Amino acid sequence: MRALLAAFALLVAIGAARAETVTDLAGRSVALPANAQRILLGEGRVIAALAILERDPTRRVVGMMGEFERYDPGGYAQYKAALPAIAKIPRVGRGTGESFSLEASLALAPDLAIFGLEGHGPTPKDRELIERLEKAGVTVLFIDFRKEPLVNTPRSIELLGAALGRRAEAAAFTAFYR
C-alpha cells in the first residue's frame, strides 16, 4: 500500500511539474512554467489584466516597465491607492522598448515575462532580447491589448489564465466579454 501511495504521489508531482504548451499571440509555441511565481511585465498597465484574474495582481510581479505612472498618472494613482505594493515593484525601463534593461530584468530572476505585440516594452521584433531571456530560463509570452484589442483581448486573458493557473477566472471574464 505504501509503495502504491508513493507511486501515485510521484505521478501527481510529475504531472504538476509538467509545463503546458500554448501558442502565444506572436504565433510562438511556448511551454509555460508549471507554477509561475516571478513575473516580469513588459508593460506596467498589464496589472489591470492581472487584476481580472487575481485579487492582488502585484503579488507575483517582480518587475515592470515604468510607463504606467509616466503616461497614465491618474490611473496609476488609483491603482497605487488600492494596491500600494505597486510602487515597490522594481522598474526595468521607462516607457519604450529601447529603455528595457535586460540586466535589471535578469537580476530579478523572473520565471515568466509577459510582453505585448506592440507597446512600451519589448515586442516580437526584439528577437535577440527574447533569445537571451529564454537562454537564462525565462519563459516569454506575448499577449495583445493594443494592436487588435477587440479580437485579441479574450485570447490574451485566456493565455494569462493558463500562465497563472487561473483558467476559471479567465473563462468567466471571456464569457462576459463576448
Task: Please give a structural write-up.
- This protein is of the alpha/beta class and 178 residues long.
- The protein is 45% helix and 13% strand.
- It has a 4-stranded parallel sheet. A two-stranded antiparallel sheet has the order 1-2.
- α2 (47-53) links the parallel β3 and β4.
- α7 (149-164) runs antiparallel to α8 (167-177).
- Mean pLDDT is 90; it is low at 1-16.
Helix and strand element order: HEEEHEHHHEHEHH
Mean pLDDT comes to 90
Main-sheet strand order equals: 4-3-5-6
Poorly predicted regions are 1-16
How large, in whole angstroms, is the Cα Rg? Answer: 17 Å
Properties at a glance:
single chain; 178 residues; alpha/beta; two-stranded antiparallel sheet; globular; disordered N terminus
